[in-house]
Amino acid sequence: MNxxxxxxxxxxxxxxxxxxxxxRGVNVLGVGDCPYDMISDDTKNSLTEYYYxxxxxxxxxxxxxxxxxxxxxxxxxxxxxxxxxxxxxxxTLRRDFNVTTGPQIQDMRWxxxxxxxxxxxxxxxxxxxxxxxxxxxxxxxxxTKKNGYPVIVKPDNGVGATHTYKLKDDEELKDFYxxxxxxxxxxxxxxxxxxxxxxxGVTDKDKNILFSTSHYMDTSIMDTVNDASDIYFHSEPxxxxxxxxxxxKVVKAFDTRxxxxxxxxxxxxxxxxGLGRKGDLVPLEVNMRAPGAFIPDMMNYAYDxxxxxxxxDMMIYNTCFYEIERKYYVGYVGxxxxxxxxxxxxEVADKYREYIKIEADIPQVLAQAEGNHIFIFRAKTKxxxxxITKAIIAHKKKKAAPKKAVKKTVKAVAKKVEKVKEPVKExxxxxVKKTVKAVAKKVEEVKEPVKTVVEETVKTVEKKxxxVKKTVKAVTKKVEETKEPVKAVVETKxxxxxxxVEDTVKVVEEKKExxxxxxxxxxxxxxxxxxxxxxxxxx
Length: 539
Fold this sequence. Notes:
This protein is an alpha+beta fold. The protein has 18 helices and 16 strands.
């Protein structure tokens, strides 16, 4: 058997898919955009041969790689990547190399577009959130009048929660519409209150589920991406649970033959008219590939199996050789850089050494959705799992000053302020009052002379208006004669006012220093009386 695996080096742990096939005698032929000497030894050892291309986006290069493999090893039986991003590339290569296993080009619409997924869900008798394609603002506003707020806007063709937002009112909707990415086709859907629950596993060529499990998302993926907050989730049993029943319906509704699948549902946190009652599951998305964020490894730790082997045996033998029995609860925590945690990474590793199965740094390109530093751990009971989760995500709290000390300090400061308040008030008031009176007096002194000059000028103009030129000259002369005396008076009084104001400021500054000395002696009080800062509204 010849299997072409696209990008076997990324994510890093994907070499596990390849190694299980190679261990069973399969020619595993890797195509990637990372030079051979830069891929890990694990990846090198998991491949029969590796073909380097400058870019996986360049179809001609990837086509030549597959043509080379076909000429050297014979007909290609499978083309896989287990990566959402390369699904269309896989399908195009299957068409061009006549590979009948796996999804074809005509299957891409319902595999990649959320609007098409919803139509398949509906055909299976499953209820989905009401939605429209976001074409015009008027249509969007009309949709919100019908369904109310909040609403969710997301790319029709997108991975994870990138470019996905929760909008709360017309203002946010208009702002999003006016600034959205023009190259992305969006859908607008009714908000469904609840938490995301997954259902993933492996099927045979007849859509029979060989192995499955579930994970409960304790945090919103949308929020963790947009707010860069901690991400954590845990495994849940599916045996005899409603999620298995509805998961089977979805498996049958879609073309899941010989696939790793990953479905997402929303478990209603309250009754939702038209969708269901609290606790019901509402279909969200379907993915025809392995789940990300180390979930295959979490599946292994929950059941003490090897998911990669189950996948390989499905491709080769169309069966699973494991006895499936759940044994553990498994948790995942993705920490963020820049957050001050109660326990350091080293302290977590030391304290919970017997429970931790994986500790790793995540590449920056994946860190937005998965966290910068992750811990995967397991426990026999859910209570123990929750204990470990809380310890890992606990943030350090800022220590507040004791209430008694704060109260005492505030009283002391208030007392000091009362003592100096009146003296400062009087010191400021008297000079200012005196200065204002002096200025008013000076204005009164110059007002009459100026008024007299102006009246005399008017009289002169009236008497001399017949010979216009002569009158204008006379007026000009009179103005010039009176301008300088008036200017001199104003300048003199301006300096007197300026001096008076400076004296007032000096008094204020002296009293201000007294206040500063009081506050310096009581730093806690300074902090306690500081006005609170209000956070701006998040959008």
